[in-house]
Amino acid sequence: MMNNINQAVLILIIANVLVSMKGFKDYSFLDKYKFQVGKVLAGEKLRTITSGFLHVDWMHLGFNMYALYLFGDIVAGFLGMTYFLIIYFGSLLAGSLYSLYYHKKEPYYSAVGASGAVSGIVYASILLYPAMELYLFFIPIPIPGYIFGVGYLLYSIYGMKKQVGNVGHSAHLGGAIGGFVVTLLLHPSLFITNKLLVISLGIPIILLLLFGDKLKNL
Question: What is the pLDDT of residues 131-165, one digit of tens each?
């Protein structure tokens, strides 16, 4: 199966592995390129991108790269390599920017990982193939892609509010929103062919963008 992997997906996986390995061995390297609110606001904008190629350990890296491998080929195969890369980096940046907005009063908040970019690719896949069925760990029953998409948004919102686990829920959420928006901009016919799906995923996103800043006060 790996013989059929899209070239752009393969290059991104290799880049993530090599950069992450460097970060595993050299903390000063990780510290220099990780996402950190205070550093980004001070002008180190490159961190919003470089942090997406760093991971804290092999499990973190493995989960993200496996998801990229599964869903990246779907997006690249449907839209082509250029659009795939636009969605990937657009989602990565959206995840960082949403984290920056949500944690703007926490200068020492930091994060690494490709989760924002991968979340955007997963959402793009759901938009392009709404009938897809996903199997989650320990759940043997397939879940329709559109149900997973809405559930993912709601869980990320809950995770942000309750600070569930050592997970950058804001980056996941921002990346998913980025993937949703960029995919629709690149392939606007989805507004017609998958209208109900666009609406079902769009409503919670709109509500989040309008009232997301109130989450911490609830």
Answer: 777 766 556 777 776 677 667 666 666 666 655 44
What domains sit in the chain, N to C, each tagged with a CATH number?
Answer: 2-217 (1.20.1540.10)
Distance of CA 74 to the CA centre of its chain: 16
> DSSP secondary structure string, the chain?
-GGG--HHHHHHHHHHHHHHHHHHH-HHHHHHHSEEHHHHHTT-TTHHHHGGG--SSHHHHHHHHHHHHHHHHHHHHHH-HHHHHHHHHHHHHHHHHHHHHHTTT-TT-EE--SHHHHHHHHHHHHHH-TT-EE--TT--S-EEHHHHHHHHHHHHHHHHHHT-SS--HHHHHHHHHHHHHHHHHH-TTHHHHTHHHHHHHHHHHHHHHHHGGGGGG-
| pLDDT over threshold 80, residue 208 | no
Q: Say what the pTM is.
A: 0.87
Token pair listed for 70:
């599964």
Mean of pLDDT values over 93-117 = 92
